[in-house]
Amino acid sequence: MNRQTGEMLKVILRKRRAYNCIECGKCSSVCPIGILNGRYYPRIILRKAVHENPDVMHDGLLWSCLNCGLCDQVCELDVRFYEFIKDLRAECRNQGIEEIVPPHGGGLHAWMGLMASPELKQNRLDWITDELKYREKGDVLYFVGCLPYYDRFFDSLAADVLNIARSTVKILNTLGIEPAVMDNERCCGHDFLWGGNIEDFKRLAEININAIRNTGAKTVVTACAECYHTLKKDYPEHVGKLDAEVLHLSQYLAGNVSDLSLNDGEKRISFQDPCRLGRLSGIYEEPREIIAAIKGAELCEMKRNRANAVCCGTSGWLSCGTYSKQIQTARLKEAKKTGAEMLVTSCPKCQIHFKCALSDEKTEPEARIEIQDLATLVAECMQ
Predict the structure, then answer these.
(1) Domain containing 234: what range?
(2) Do 119 and 250 sit in the same domain of this protein?
(3) CB 302 within 8 A of CB 345
(4) pLDDT per residue over 152-174, tens digit each?
(5) 266-280: buried (b, 16+ CB within 10 Å) or exposed (e) per residue?
(6) Counting Cβ atoms within 10 Å, is residue 124 exposed (0-12), middle (13-18) or buried (19+)?
(7) Which end of the chain has the lower number of beta carbons within 10 A, N or C?
(8) How many CB atoms lie within 10 A of CB 292?
(9) Which residue in 356, 344, 332 sits closest to 381, CA to CA?
(10) Above 90 in pLDDT, residue 360?
(11) Does 145 have pLDDT greater than 80?
């Protein structure tokens, strides 16, 4: 490891408080990947980095981390391991070290790269049907995210993620709001940031910040947990703060849910806390308040919920293999064991990953449960 790399590594270690680590192993005991893969220990990766072992830069396991934040939850010494991994990945990319081949042939990263071009012109509004009302500019902006792309890419899963977008606009319309929707909106850049591609992340962020500013929006609403965290937390840290308040749809609805008449005809529901909305943003109660406001709905909590919730098994489209499927299947079983008929989440990727697991004919009956997004559930329950 050259001197420059060693100094950069020390900066990352100090920034993420890695020198606090005493190798107690608590992080390894809760890590979804570490529990399944005996070779993956967060503390071992930290040890290599602290002792400037060059192998840490070439360890393929570096890309296995789900950045879910469970390790943070149990660390009593405030080591920020999942953010350490994010920074270390960025340094690896700076040096041209990438020990990973993304799933789906890298297609998802390819389209995000295309969206980072300022000259790109898209047709992003085909999903809006005649009964939905929207504007080009307005006080409330709906940030759609990559739903139009996911809808086509994962068509074989019947994920129907564009229904999340239509449901969000329908809900806002019911509340008397015609949201602004951008016809050339870009990916928020979440996956680039957590995959270490800081350059393209900043390009996307700058394009989006300028586009949002041009709509005159005072409030930005998104139904995607990752878009929320990226716009709310990551843009200010890396590029610049938006001139608008950023709210996840669950936050926005929690303050307006009394204006909606919701009835679902008696259904038992379990809720999946997305990592970016829950542990990384601290939003736990708002989605539950909305479910509680649905007449006839019963919330069936999984044992591991809120800050202790287990993620959906894949992050940033960086890996998706045997361990991911085991995590997903175990979580689906946990949800069904509560007696719930439906697992609701508020992140499109959670829905895609769980439905992907259910698409496998080998998935056991104990793991088979209906998957739905919070936005589509609310839209269906409106009278």
Answers:
(1) 111-254
(2) yes
(3) no
(4) 999 999 888 999 999 999 999 99
(5) ebebbbbbbbbbbbb
(6) middle
(7) C
(8) 13
(9) 344
(10) yes
(11) yes
